[in-house]
Amino acid sequence: xxxxxxxxxxxxxxxADAEIISHKLMVRGGYLKKLAPGxxxxxxxxxxxxxxxxxxxxxxxxxRGCTEVLMPVVHPASLWEETGxxxxxxxxxxxxxxxxxxxxxxxxxxxxxxxDYIRHDIKSYRDxxxxxxxxxxxxxxxIRPRFGLMRxxxxxxxxxxxxxxxxxxxxxxxxxxxxxYKAIFSRLGLDFRIVQADAxxxxxxxxxEFQVLAEAGEDALLVSTDSDxxxxxxxxxxxDPDDVxxxxxxxxxxxxxxTPGLKTIQQLMDALKISSNSLVKTLFFSANEGFDSKDxxxxxxxxxxxxxxxxxxxxxxxxxxMVNPPLMLTDDExxxxxxAWPGSCGPVGLKIPIYLDNxxxxxxxxxxxxxxDGYHLKNVNVGRDFQATKVADLRMxxxxxxxxxxxxxxxxxxxxxxxxxxYLGTKYSQKMQATYLDKNGKAQFIEMGCYGIGVTRTLxxxxxxxxxxxxxxxxxxxxxxxxxxxxxxxxxxxxxxxAEKLERCFTEMRIDVLVDDRxxxxxxxxxxxxxxxxxIRINIGARGVDAGEIEVVERSGKVVHKVAPxxxxxxxxxxxx
RNA sequence: CGGGGAGUAGCGCAGUCUGGUAGCGCAUCUGAUUUGGGUUCAGAGGGUCGCAGGUUCGAAUCCUGUCUCCCCGACCA
Length: 577
Fold this sequence. Notes:
By secondary structure, the protein is α+β, with helices and mostly antiparallel strands. Helix content is 27%, strand content 27%.
């Protein structure tokens, strides 16, 4: 394809609203254009990458017996009311009314739609298993879209849903998709990790995330140095390194002391010359969403952590069996519950449930707020001075913690979540009455799993991982074009003739080729070629043609091969593998 | 929703404090020049300064209101 027909416009400067490198490069290369926050037009170049990625997905899924369909983007409210998610999903679901004042939403996901689709057809165990997928635009009304395609409101997703007769069969389907995803992301050539994760409000029990490693990633990961263990920090168990284990001391008597103006852990550490492990902080949350201090039905509770630890809201949520993580109380609400402002609060004398992080359990004679402004208590001990409602692992695991496998320690990474596999069980089939008759003629709920790949997000993750100072370096498998021909002397007939011959040759070989046929100086073309990032660049200019050699340049590492015109195709084929 | 920042030409920005005919770079168009890493020169076109009120002889600039965008947080299968 000729550049002049392709509607490609590059920018020297990145737009001011792009923050991370992949977003900047995509905008500079003209791959992406914003229409509204989180809503983008994908240019022809990006569309080519999208299609290639989609084809990789199709190949891997089709070969594993999955079936592609295409479901609606607009769903009636009644469908989502069946599972209760019309309300549960909150504002993330974009809702609107049609001309008859009937409510609809834009599909944020398709568990309901696909379950509705199959429940009318699947009647017998003989109809199972099934695995149905689609590649389609999703809409989620994200509170804050950011970083281009990393977190868009409108984006393309591959979502698959498995239907099986029982738990064992469903786990087999899960494992199969796990392997499929591994194959898909491996074919892209990306550095990724498969991590344990929280199931979130989609429900279900077993789940893994596929994370492309990148500093700009939104997720924090902990990966073992010496075992296969890898987890999203949201669910990683926190196990102290050996040297943190404090020796138990004899309990001594409780004592109140004055700490005027000392509110933060850091201030107390500095003023009292003690370590964070002598301090215990008390955080306050509400188990009710929309906590209102005037509402008598509120259920505030306290969480105790060592001074150096951070609370893990997902662990709290799971401990309490909540749908969403609990909300922190405001300062005013804390004052109302404890009688003191945050910074002077503690567990002694509180009449609300107290959840204790298991790190605190090891401590003796520690310091907490006295629930009286400007005072703290020292020599506080669990059991003697206050009772814990429950002891659990409620803190964030961190780098250096012991690996739960027992081997090695945890190292932290940032990741971009590009894929997610869930075992759902019968959560949706029960609510939507999706059943089949087993061999005994008895109705059973269908076991489900769901599996997503963020298609557009993956492309950006690839760029985030594959670029250099000059621009994008596309993995060969998803590059918009394999070859980028720079015609350096567009007015030289011999040069143009060779370029066109090569273009025809590549087209016959099914190698995608972009020909920069603009009347521009070589420097401009080189800069643009580096920016756009095709794996191979071919320079055809009068100088080379006269010398009987043409430059074939590998984008990655800028390796230059000088070859005779009739050897160019062969060389390219070799490089592409 | 809380905190911060910003709306001036397609893109990147200055001008606003201290009111006085709207500027620069890139891009675009014309003509020369140059021709293997974003040539150089000359010229041209393009903006109701986010929007609405107000103050003033006069507002991009001051006042009031409002909308939008970006960043951090909360949120997020």
